[in-house]
């Protein structure tokens, strides 16, 4: 029997050597660049024997989202997709699950770097950092920087207490913040580490700073919009390092302009790379362009985890970090 065939889709930044080494036991194929139409054609011939895929998050620029069209074109022998990214909202999970294709993502590897940026945004938003940064570069020293706030003694509400949320909580405790959180399910006490579980409405009402750290899906899209802002404290601070579409961006702009939201720290946006004009012009929005995992160490670890997932799965040991939806999914294929 010949070697199993695995396919790399999109670029590698730090692990070309490790990918090439897999050639000792797998037949390696690549689609590092191209168009969606070219990819669909190759699925019918050149890639018809692929059993496992390494999918770079950046490959969306070439293939577009892994939607039902892409899924239906996948060869019947495909069993595994190892996705590089903590978020995988550009994959139609239901379609691939129904076809019996297992998917992994890269939790854990992203936790520390994303939480670091979350704290950076939290502190920047509390201090209205955009205003003095713009002022000093314009030769105006501090400009009209308003007085900021300390994190000490404030309540940080975390919506989504997964690995990133817990890493965020751990860091915030060092600044003297009280931690409350809301999940679909309460965590075991050993994972709470002193954080207090509250209902969604309590989270909105009690948070001085609200950090979004949950996955984007049909149920969580626009989980924060105008009705939720009305339930929050006046002068609340919003931090989002997860996915932009968790917040209805136009409603956030209105809340910032009215003062309901005092400031926001954002790494993600609803229609990336486009940023709402209301966020660009409002200096109380402390914004960076989706750099949460933009470190050498984290990006290399993410790529290595994808390779480990792919190798484990193709070798018959299963994916190491399967997506949560497939851990409990019951159907004829999974």
From TrEMBL:
InterPro entries: D-isomer_2-hydroxyacid_DH, D-isomer_2_OHA_DH_cat_dom, D-isomer_DH_CS1, D-isomer_DH_NAD-bd, NAD(P)-bd_dom_sf. One of its GO terms (molecular function) is hydroxypyruvate reductase [NAD(P)H] activity. The keyword NAD applies. GO terms for cellular component: cytosol. SUPFAM superfamilies: Formate/glycerate dehydrogenase catalytic domain-like, NAD(P)-binding Rossmann-fold domains. It comes from the Eukaryota. Residues 18-321 form the D-isomer specific 2-hydroxyacid dehydrogenase catalytic domain. The keyword Oxidoreductase applies. Pfam families: 2-Hacid_dh (PF00389), 2-Hacid_dh_C (PF02826). Signal peptide: none annotated. Residues 121-292 form the D-isomer specific 2-hydroxyacid dehydrogenase NAD-binding domain. Keywords: NAD, Oxidoreductase. Belongs to the D-isomer specific 2-hydroxyacid dehydrogenase family. This is D-3-phosphoglycerate dehydrogenase. It comes from Cyphellophora europaea (strain CBS 101466) (Phialophora europaea). The lineage of its organism: Eukaryota, Fungi, Dikarya, Ascomycota, Pezizomycotina.
């Amino acid at each position: 029997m010949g070697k199993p065939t695995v396919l790399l889709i999109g670029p590698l930044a730090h692990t070309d050597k490790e990918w090439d080494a897999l050639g000792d036991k797998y037949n390696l194929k690549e689609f590092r660049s191209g168009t969606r139409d070219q990819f669909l054609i190759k699925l019918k011939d050149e890639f018809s024997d692929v059993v496992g895929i390494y999918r770079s998050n950046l490959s969306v620029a070439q293939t577009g989202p892994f939607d039902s069209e892409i899924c239906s074109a996948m060869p019947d022998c495909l069993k595994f997709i190892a996705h590089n990214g903590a978020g995988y909202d550009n994959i139609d999970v239901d379609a691939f699950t129904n076809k019996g294709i297992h998917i992994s993502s890269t939790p854990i590897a992203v936790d520390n770097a994303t939480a670091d940026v979350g704290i950076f945004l939290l502190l920047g938003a509390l201090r209205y950092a955009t205003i003095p940064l713009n002022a000093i570069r314009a030769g105006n020293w501090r400009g009209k920087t308003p007085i900021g706030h300390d994190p000490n003694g404030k309540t940080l509400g975390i919506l989504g207490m997964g690995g990133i949320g817990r890493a965020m909580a751990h860091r915030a405790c060092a600044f003297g913040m009280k931690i409350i959180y809301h999940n679909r399910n309460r965590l075991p006490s050993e994972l709470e580490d002193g954080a207090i579980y509250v209902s969604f409405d309590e989270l909105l009402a009690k948070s001085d700073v609200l950090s979004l750290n949950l996955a984007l899906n049909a149920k969580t899209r626009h989980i924060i919009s105008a009705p939720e802002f009305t339930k929050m404290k006046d002068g609340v601070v919003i931090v989002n390092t997860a996915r932009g579409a968790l917040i209805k961006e136009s409603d956030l702009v209105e809340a910032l302009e009215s003062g309901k939201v005092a400031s926001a720290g954002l790494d993600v946006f609803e229609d990336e790379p486009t940023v709402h004009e209301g966020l660009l012009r409002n200096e109380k929005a402390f914004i960076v362009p989706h750099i949460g995992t933009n470190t050498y160490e984290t990006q290399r670890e993410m790529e290595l985890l994808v390779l480990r997932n792919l190798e484990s799965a193709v070798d018959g040991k299963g994916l190491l970090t399967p997506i949560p939806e497939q851990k409990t999914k019951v159907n004829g294929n999974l």
